[in-house]
Write a structure and sequence with these properties.
The chain is of the alpha+beta class. It is built from three helices and five strands, in the order ααββαβββ.
């Protein structure tokens, strides 16, 4: 007569190993706003509620949020009815010089 401790687990059948499923290859969706946007020449319009500042010296247009535009506008001088196209005297966010700029708000 054999004891159960001597028999071991020989009577338990090993599990059947399921074959690994073939990997599913799916096509990645095109990322229009990601990697392609880094090298594209398309100029996107500023978003709603942003402020554009066009500099007369460096001829660059900077797009700022309302809070950043408020910080950039202090101290500044605004003469909209006296000066022509660039009517605000303030520091340009692009070149850092104090010059005449044209602010605009996107609604």
């Amino acid at each position: 007569m054999t004891r159960s401790s001597e028999v071991g687990f020989d009577r338990i059948k090993p599990r059947a190993v399921a074959p690994e499923p073939d990997p599913v290859v799916t096509e990645m969706p095109t990322d229009h706003a990601g990697r392609q946007a880094l090298w594209s020449d398309v100029v996107e319009p500023p978003s709603f509620g942003s402020v554009t500042i066009a500099c007369s010296s460096c001829e660059q247009t900077s797009i700022l949020g309302l809070r950043a535009a408020g910080r950039a506008a202090l101290p500044s001088l605004h003469l909209p009815f006296i000066r022509g196209e660039h009517f605000s005297w303030m520091r340009c966010p692009a070149c850092g010089r104090r010059t005449w700029v044209r602010p605009g708000i996107r609604f």
